[in-house]
Specification:
Blueprint (H helix, E strand, L loop, with lengths): L7 H9 L5 H8 L16 H8 L7 E5 L5 H8 L3 E6 L2 H14 L4 E4 L12 E7 L10 H11 E12 L12 H7 L10 H7 L4 E7 L13 E7 L2
Parallel strand pairs: 1-2, 1-4, 2-3, 4-5
Antiparallel strand pairs: 5-7, 6-7
Keywords: Methyltransferase, S-adenosyl-L-methionine, Transferase
InterPro entries: Methyltransf_25, SAM-dependent_MTases_sf
Pfam families: Methyltransf_25
């Protein structure tokens, strides 16, 4: 990479180049739909269902970051939400589109890097992320927070599901500097309550907890953390 660093985005791109190329990896990951991967199922996250059932989330416009095969987007659309769902992988977006057609719901699926999204500030009532954030490199956390803040209306909600530290599914506890020394996220970074609270300190905390183990009607895995915040 020969880019001359003269502004923050140049630095972000330089650091990006130290890590694996994400499009190639995720297209390969989703190419075999028969793999025994929990989130290949077509059921929503247990915490998402809880947010709707208890009345925290009310129908509005949602931006889903890293939508995968569309299971949460489909659930939200069935509940009357208007959903823009984004993922970097063309393989998984195609799969999500197929599922949405079968379920007969309208969802705006977008194959794009989340940091290249273009939308009007304050466009969304909810930003939802299930499994994207723990694959974001440390230097991109700043861009990620800026993205969420820009997307949300004042009073809007941001909810996240991510690897707990050292879980059976992932959740590396290496330091931020070690990510760049080893040039790897080690399969995804782990976040506990303290880290999530520190990273999203600019938002009003509503709840941070471990995901609840659940039956097959929803996706609930104890190796994940869930959190919900509100934009002040």
């Amino acid at each position: 990479m020969r880019r001359l660093v003269t502004e923050p985005e140049d630095l972000y791109l330089l650091l990006d180049s130290l890590l694996r190329e994400p499009k190639l990896f995720w297209n390969g990951f989703y190419s075999d739909r028969k793999k025994d991967i929990p989130f290949f199922s077509n059921v929503p996250d247990e915490n998402l269902v809880d947010y709707i059932d208890c009345g925290i989330f009310k129908p509005g416009r949602v931006l889903e970051l890293g939508c995968g095969p569309g299971r949460n987007a489909i659930y939200l659309a069935k509940k009357g939400y208007v959903v823009d769902a984004v993922d970097l992988s063309r393989e998984t977006i195609n799969w999500a589109i197929e599922r949405a057609k079968i379920e007969q719901v309208d969802i705006n699926f977008n194959c794009q890097n989340i940091f290249e999204l273009n939308f009007q500030e304050g466009s969304y009532d909810i930003v939802y992320d299930s499994g994207c954030f723990h694959h974001i490199a440390p230097h991109r956390r700043i861009s990620y927070i800026q993205l969420v803040k820009k997307a949300l209306k004042t009073g809007g909600y941001f909810a996240i599901t991510c690897f707990a530290p050292n879980s059976e599914y992932g959740g590396s506890t290496i330091s931020d500097i070690e990510v760049y020394r080893t040039q790897s996220l080690k399969g995804g970074l782990g976040y506990d309550e303290e880290k999530l609270r520190a990273i999203f300190k600019d938002f009003e905390e509503i709840e941070i907890r471990q995901m609840k183990e659940s039956d097959q009607s929803v996706l609930g895995l104890a190796g994940f953390m869930t959190a919900i915040f509100q934009k002040r």
